[in-house]
Amino acid sequence: MPPVAPRSGDAIFASVERVNAELFTLTYGAIVRQLLTDLEEVEEVNKQLDQMGYNIGIRLIDEFLAKSNVSRCVDFKETAEVIAKVGFKMFLGVTATVTNWDAEGTTCSLVLEDNPLVDFVELPDTCQGLYYCNVLSGVIRGALEMVSSYLNGRLGLSVDNLVSMKTEVTWIRDMLRGDDAFEMQVKLVKQVPEEYPYKDDE
Amino acid sequence: MIGVGKMKQYTNVLDRPLSKGKQEVSLSAFAFLFSELVQYNQTQVDNIAELERRLEDAGYAVGARVLELLCHREKGNRRETRLLGILSFVHSTVWKVLFGKVADSLEKGTEHEDEYMISEKELLVNRFISIPKDMGTFNCGAFVAGIVRGVLDNAGFPAVVTAHFVPVEGQQRPRTTILIKFAEEVLRREARLG
Amino acid sequence: MANTACFMIVSKNDIPIYEAEVGAAPRKEDAAHQHQFILHAALDIVQDLAWTTSAMFLKGIDRFNDLVVSVYVTAGHTRLMLLHDSRNDDGIKSFFQEVHELYIKTLLNPLYLPGSRITSSHFDTKVRALARKYL
């Protein structure tokens, strides 16, 4: 059977159930507000948002892979492209662009200009260190970590090809701090050959 | 690097036009986010009542904003002054914008003069969360109850608003009812306005 | 342009969250306080009137010498109040409508606490520019 062509982000987004982005934006605002009230320290809020994002990232990968029919992402470069074009689109309805690759192909930037997490947000003086959209960095981190292990499992790759993409995600540009876009730097920290202890039982 | 995006760069949020409300995200994106809201709050409380209260509080501030935005954008700056008017605003306008449809029903309570119920066969926030048995009557609709209370309170119709599961004959899943109990001052004013 | 114009935004809980003297006449400290006092005193009238109409713009609801109080009550009962000497009702209405939009944008900021003072200097700049344009 010929391989199924991967579906475009637009096609998937058109086919899934959607909700008004305002419900999403307002709910996210409520979350950030709660965290600021509970945790008080802006750095703690950043960490909590990242953790929430990570929790989301490791769960949404299932849906991402199921709906997008992406063939095995042969490397980090391809994975980043697919996340930017298909991943962002099918969940958030917007696309990101991938830029600033380093020579080794282990670091890149994901750039977002349209961001449904943010609407009329202005950081007050008391919140200057807040990374309001930090949930996104967690989602990217969580999703990338799971990408390979799911693909490995489904496609039955040989033990030599198993990898896990652990990454570090940092904010380079933030529109809430006066920049012209949201830019996250995604850096592969280690490609870990995955332990596959049950292989012999299959 | 400045990309090829269409969005203009505004120097300040106040210069940006108000959204027309047409942008969308996937339902699952909202579901994941809402699920994190609930799970986070579970770690902050000792019991179900507290959990519901926290979700309601989170919804209240959303309601306050929704009221101002939608009256302006959807109702041509018409300010509701009558009880049925504000209930209709919640049941139709607010529901349509937030959940994509008007609420299934709006009913007046039969036992109490000050009670009204907005019901939904499948309230959006209850669709993708299954409540474990040990959480009893906990209802994620508490968040929506908070939104409704935020709208009503800021519009000048203070009320106690709660979310309940109501079993329906012939249906496997119960429906969700948002119960609104208006403060006495509201009924007195309604009577006065005639 | 109006010679005298004092603009105030009062929260639903009757707390002033923004005020500005926006008339052409030179500012006088005592006058400003007196203006705010007059506007605050008119709140009871506004409250009663607000329930008799679904319109947001309530013109000329009170007088003080040659000054008139006009009010714009938002859906959430935030009051935009203007003490003025001009009779330019259309200009006043437009002024209120544009400030109303600025207020909504401010409110939509999840990090703004409703009912708290509006401290944005950009908000202040824009309100003053609108006053010059319409009043």
Automatic annotation (TrEMBL), chain A:
Keywords: Endoplasmic reticulum, ER-Golgi transport, Golgi apparatus, Transport
Alphabetized InterPro entries for the sequence: Bet3, NO_sig/Golgi_transp_ligand-bd, TRAPP_component
Gene3D superfamilies registered for this protein in UniProt: Trafficking protein particle complex subunit 3
Endoplasmic reticulum keyword on record: yes
Compartmental location: Endoplasmic reticulum; Golgi apparatus, cis-Golgi network
Presence of the UniProt keyword Ribosomal protein in the record: no
Top-level taxon of the source organism: Eukaryota
Record note on quaternary structure: Homodimer.
Function: May play a role in vesicular transport from endoplasmic reticulum to Golgi.
Sequence similarity: Belongs to the TRAPP small subunits family. BET3 subfamily.
Protein name: Trafficking protein particle complex subunit
Biological source species: Coffea arabica (Arabian coffee)
TrEMBL record, chain B:
Main location: endoplasmic reticulum
GO cellular component: endoplasmic reticulum; TRAPPI protein complex; TRAPPII protein complex; TRAPPIII protein complex
Family matches, as InterPro entries: NO_sig/Golgi_transp_ligand-bd, TRAPP-I_su5, TRAPP_component
Matching SUPFAM superfamilies: Ligand-binding domain in the NO signalling and Golgi transport
Single GO biological process annotation from the record: endoplasmic reticulum to Golgi vesicle-mediated transport
Subcellular localization: Endoplasmic reticulum; Golgi apparatus, cis-Golgi network
Entry keywords, A to Z: Endoplasmic reticulum, ER-Golgi transport, Golgi apparatus, Transport
Coiled-coil portions: none
Family classification: Belongs to the TRAPP small subunits family. BET3 subfamily.
Oligomeric form and interacting partners: Part of the multisubunit TRAPP (transport protein particle) complex.
Protein name per its UniProtKB record: Trafficking protein particle complex subunit
Native organism: Coffea canephora
Classification of source organism: Eukaryota, Viridiplantae, Streptophyta, Embryophyta, Tracheophyta
Automatic annotation (TrEMBL), chain C:
Pfam families per record: Sedlin_N (PF04628)
Superkingdom field: Eukaryota
Any one GO biological process: endoplasmic reticulum to Golgi vesicle-mediated transport
Cellular component GO terms, alphabetical: cytoplasm
Signal peptide range: none
InterPro entries according to UniProt: Longin-like_dom_sf, Sedlin
PANTHER family: TRAFFICKING PROTEIN PARTICLE COMPLEX SUBUNIT 2
Record-given protein name: Uncharacterized protein isoform X1
Protein species of origin: Coffea arabica (Arabian coffee)
Gene: LOC113728132
